[in-house]
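User: Show me a protein chain along with its predicted structure.
Assistant: Here is one chain, sequence first, then structure tokens.
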Amino acid sequence: MPETLRPSRIIPDVVFARDGKQTGYLRLFHSTHDSAYGFLPIPIVVVQHGEGPTALFTSGNHGDEYEGQVALTNLAQWLEPDMIQGRVILLPMANYPAALVGRRVSPIDDLNLNRIFPGDPDGTVTRQIAHFIDSVLIPLADLVIDLHSGGSSLNYIPCALARQSADPALYRKQLAALRAFGAPYTYIQGGAQGQGGDQTLGSGADRRGSIALGTELGGSGTVNSAGLAIAERGLRNLLVHLGILPREHWREPPATRFLDVRGQDYYLYAPENGVFEPLVGLGDTVVVGQPAARIHTPETPWRAPVELAFNAAGIVMCQRIPARTKRGDCLFHLASDLLVD
């Protein structure tokens, strides 16, 4: 049987077609030495009132990214059925095992949830989660936003993002939603990293015709207060934009600056193991050939540091956090202004 037709093994506590506010778990059965018949309780909240659009808000796709988890937890406590027309589905710990221990990838199968969509209903834990989101939750949604940040190893200027839909009409809807979300910066992904762009949660939403958005809200393994504030205003604005919340909840956002990540040259990687000394900071504007970093080797202190320069011009959007680094680690990525209609 084709994978897309095989049903999920995950059992939800909630009924997606029921009015009211439901809280519960997605029961992913997982037999271990400590719990032979146990399940992983992935928390979910569904708020519904009457007919209308559906918004799916997810976070914890990477377990060490916290701004989105806090924003959705706060939204779950604030939102009530009589406030809305339509449905809101909140999944704050999408990769529950990873979020529980604050790791980017699952401690159970060591998989990155955001690189394995559409998943597999008969696969490992993370593949089952991806399949449930892709085959059950996304088809319900008119709009999906997956809230990310830099996690433990990166820090971002808080921003929104989207992977440009190949459907022009859907891309126009993406841009309108991004303007409503209202992050100071918004960048359009072009698949420059080569890291499974067609296997992300957002790609699953785009494939099914939903408006697919994302964020990078900070990082460093902490909760960035500016990123959290952007997310909380932006999520409510999206609900107003969709017609789920009334206009009284709209908060006028700043005009977003659209940016483009144009190619592999926009990423700077460590060529050697050592200690990373940044020579620029987040938000700096840099030019081709500008010194970017030094890699020091304290274990051979008589050796001169390796000096790195930028291969492209643009704004520094992202920076590595741990100073100790190894060959192949991403140190920075840039973005350049993008003209959109």
